[in-house]
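Q: Given only this backbone (315 positions), what sequence would you predict?
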């Protein structure tokens, strides 16, 4: 039996993705961008162990067995490479155990990327092809696989390119203000956005934002990157409001408006993806003051950093 373990960090969108033209292969209508993140004090990762040559096939995520027929089951990726496993290791059966540690949102990105890393280590596959497989579990797996700041280009064969290393964000902390309601599944966004006439404009805005982001990354303009992310958050949730998908609750909006006011005193921005957090990127020296202020809005606050790509833990 052959065994490998890998970890990968979850992600936050910078140019947010909405709309999938293929729900099975999870192919996007437009380009997008994101960062991998971790809690500052403890690592946020999906930790995945893959064993090749087991008696039976199985997938266990956070202690629960996943049906291999489940639409986003990691077994879909394994099936693609089964013959290659058999050729190299004599047996094709694979078992996967994955646990999410300290993840606020973006668990599927991290889970897909950690598994991708295990597969790469076991049979050495083409990364472009691997990404097309990983995205069947999560359309944002590429962000987690490469880490730092990445752009995922749309088109018939979407692919992800890393444009800044996590070290470029060393002076930044991202505070996460978590609100106490349950998040909606991201598929609500993906199925509804393309139905509205504004979606054409949204796609154009996302492509434009990605072009500007390339330039900002080249200039290492980290503040500019998060300013762009804040503008994109507004456009994305305007789009969501047009199709009746409410992600930004009145409580979250109250905080976002307040952040706009605080920006006249010190630099900060906000990002809201598909979850119940308002992410607040700022300089490390502002962290304690802003944290104190955030306590008036929610009791659950985390400090995050930009994280690196997926890595092998043991072979
Ligand atoms: P998130 O923002 O946490 O990714 P989504 O709604 O986009 O939330 O994804 C939920 C899906 O991710 C579920 O199908 C779940 O089974 C899958 N998932 C969660 N953790 C893992 C993991 N570690 N490995 C593979 N898939 C995972
Ligand atoms: C809603 O595929 P998440 C969104 O681009 C979908 O980060 C990603 O993120 C937006 O909240 C994005 O599901 O992580």
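A: Predicted residues:
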């Amino acid at each position: 039996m052959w065994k490998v373990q890998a970890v990968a960090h979850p992600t936050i969108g910078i140019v947010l993705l909405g709309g999938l033209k293929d729900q099975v292969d999870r192919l996007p209508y437009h380009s997008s961008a994101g960062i991998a993140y971790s809690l500052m004090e403890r690592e946020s990762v999906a930790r995945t162990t893959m064993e090749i040559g087991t008696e039976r096939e199985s997938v266990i995520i956070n202690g629960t067995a996943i049906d291999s027929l489940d639409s986003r089951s990691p077994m879909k990726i394994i099936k693609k490479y089964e013959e290659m496993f058999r050729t190299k290791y004599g047996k094709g059966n694979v078992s996967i155990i994955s646990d999410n540690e300290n993840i606020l949102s973006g668990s599927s990105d991290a889970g897909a990327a950690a598994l991708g890393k295990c597969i790469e280590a076991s049979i050495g596959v083409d990364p472009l092809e691997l990404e097309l497989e990983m995205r069947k579990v999560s359309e944002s797996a590429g962000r987690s696989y490469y880490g730092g700041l990445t752009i995922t280009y749309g088109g018939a064969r979407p692919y992800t390119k890393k444009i800044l290393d996590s070290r470029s964000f060393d002076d930044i902390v991202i505070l996460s203000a978590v609100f106490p309601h349950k998040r909606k599944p991201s598929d609500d966004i993906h199925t509804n956005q393309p139905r509205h006439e504004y979606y054409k404009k949204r796609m154009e805005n996302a492509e434009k934002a990605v072009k500007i982001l390339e330039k900002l990354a080249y200039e290492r303009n980290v503040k500019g990157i998060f300013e762009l992310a804040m503008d994109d958050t507004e456009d994305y949730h305007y789009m969501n409001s047009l199709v009746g998908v409410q992600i930004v609750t009145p409580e979250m909006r109250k905080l976002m408006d307040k952040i706009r006011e605080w920006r006249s005193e010190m630099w900060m921005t906000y990002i809201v993806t598909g979850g119940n957090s308002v992410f607040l990127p700022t300089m490390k020296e502002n962290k304690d003051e802003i944290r104190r202020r955030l306590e008036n809005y929610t009791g659950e606050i985390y400090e995050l950093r930009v994280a690196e790509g997926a890595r092998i833990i043991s072979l």
